[in-house]
Design brief:
The protein has about 290 residues and is of the alpha/beta class. The chain contains eleven helices and eleven strands. The protein has a single domain (about 5-280), classed as TIM Barrel (Alpha-Beta Barrel), CATH 3.20.20. Residues about 285-290 have low confidence and may be disordered. Strand 8, helix 6 and strand 9 form a beta-alpha-beta unit.
Amino acid sequence: MGRVRLGINLEFVRHADKPFEWGVEKAAEIGYEFVEPMVHFGRELLSEAGYFHSISLFDDPLRIARICERAGVRISGLSAHMPLCKPEVSTESLKLAVRFAAECGAPVVNTDEGPKPSWTTRDEDFVLMKYVLTEVVAVAERRGILIGLEPHQQYSRTPGGLDEIINLVPAPVVGINFDTGNAYLSGQDPIAWLEHVLPRLVHVHAKDISQAQAEAERGRVTGTPVGCACGDGVIDWQAVVRLCRKAPRDIVLSVECGTVDQAEQSFAYLSRLIRDLEQSPEPAHLKPGS
């Protein structure tokens, strides 16, 4: 049975127009144990100017590690979403992200199939995804880095579709980065889906969905960048935490919300919930083997 830890995706400072360093320090100040940096390929004006939190894969990963060490947080994974259906975008970017992760101390690289090309068939997309994953897995296996595939786009919006993608390359380093909010918005039951992927779970995007967004978008979209504060929306977080405690490895709930205030609310809610559940006996129907 794994432990459940609390982290945050750096997207929470996107609208604050602040750099990576500021976001890490703010996450530590709030109380988070882990951060999930977003990485990009090449150089980007706003990040270089200090107005955006994303970090370049051309940066020094040891510099990133030192920033986190000074703040007293660890890295749960890299948000390195590159479209697997587009190998000209994702192959070298994800291989570089894996090497970056190995040096900065991130155990997981998270991605998804991304928007597909407009001209390819479904069968062609799965060949393209297999090609990219095969190339990336070879680099990941040498370094002990996990690949977290996320439910987020056209094929991974259902449990069966995500299963097809994860089984394209039968390697132990390929796992699931489960996104609670995306699963809900795609029209699925996120708790049942989370239980289904539990043996392959390596990371969780803890994303709540407001009632208003749920009513407007559920079943019409495959995902959303960020959610509301955890505890303010429709996700059953007690069930999420209880299931994650049954996972075969420790799991970080990496909060995905849009503002500093939401990050503070999410931390207060989830940290209290995790603490209370750790102190309470496990219901019989959730015990391993039951």
